[in-house]
Amino acid sequence: MIRITMTSFIRLFSLILVLFTIGCVQKEDKQKKTTTRPPNAVKAPDFTLVSLEGDMFTLSDLRGNVILLNFWATWCYPCKIEIPDLNKLQEKYQDKGFDVVGITLTSGSPGQISKFAEEWGMNYKVLTDIEGKYETEKVTNNYGQATGVPISGVPTSFIIDRDGYIVKTYIGPRSEQMFYNDLKHYL
Question: Cβ–Cβ contacts within 10 Å for residue 91, how many?
Fold first, then answer.
C-alpha cells in the first residue's frame, strides 16, 4: 500500500496546478499570435506618392505595421462621414503598429487638400499625386488589378497585414467599430 502524507499530497497537487496553469497560458499566447491570412489574400502593390507635407512616401516603408489604406476624395460625402472614425482608429492603435493612410483622388491641388485635411482634423498620412501626374490613378488601378475588383467608387479601403498582404476590402464607408472588428486580429 502506498502512503501519501498530507504534505506530499499538497506538494503534488500544487505541482499539477502549476503545470496546468502554465499549459493554459501557453495555449492562450499561441492563439493570440496566430492569425491566419484569408485564402484570397494578395500582396499589396507597393507605390510611392507624396504626402501633404511634400515628403515622398513609399508604402513598403510601413512593412511590419498593419495598414488601413483608404482611397477617398474631398468632394465625396460618404468619405467625409468616415474621416472621424479613421481619426479615432489612428489615435487609438498607432502605438500597436497601426497606420491609416489616405490616398486622395481628383481632389484638387495639394494646397486645397491640405486645407481640407486641416479643417477635418485628419491625424493620419494623406497622400496625393507627385507633381500632378495622375500617380494616384495608377495606384488605384494597381489595387483593382491585384484584388480582381476595379476601384470604381470612393471610399474604398483595404486592410494590409504586417507582411504586406491585403486581407480585407471595403467598398463604401465603414464605422470605427466595423473596421476594428476586422483589424483586431492583426494588431
Answer: 12
Residues 6+ apart with CB under 8 A from 139: 45, 47, 49, 103
Its pTM surpasses 0.85: no
pLDDT digits (tens, 9 = 90+) for 44-91: 999 999 999 999 999 999 999 999 999 999 999 999 999 999 999 999
- Using DSSP bridges, classify how beta strands 98-104 and 125-128 pair: parallel, antiparallel or unpaired: parallel
* 66 residue type, one letter: V
Vertex 121: Cα angle to 120 and 122 (nearest 5): 95
Q: What is the 3 state secondary structure string of the chain?
A: CCCCCHHHHHHHHHHHHHHHHHHHHHHHHHHHHCCCCCCCCEECCCCEEEECCCCEEEHHHHCCCEEEEEEECCCCHHHHHHHHHHHHHHHHHHHHCEEEEEEECCCCCHHHHHHHHHHCCCCCEEEECCCCCCHHHHHHHHHHHHHCCCCCCCCEEEEECCCCEEEEEEECCCCHHHHHHHHCCCC
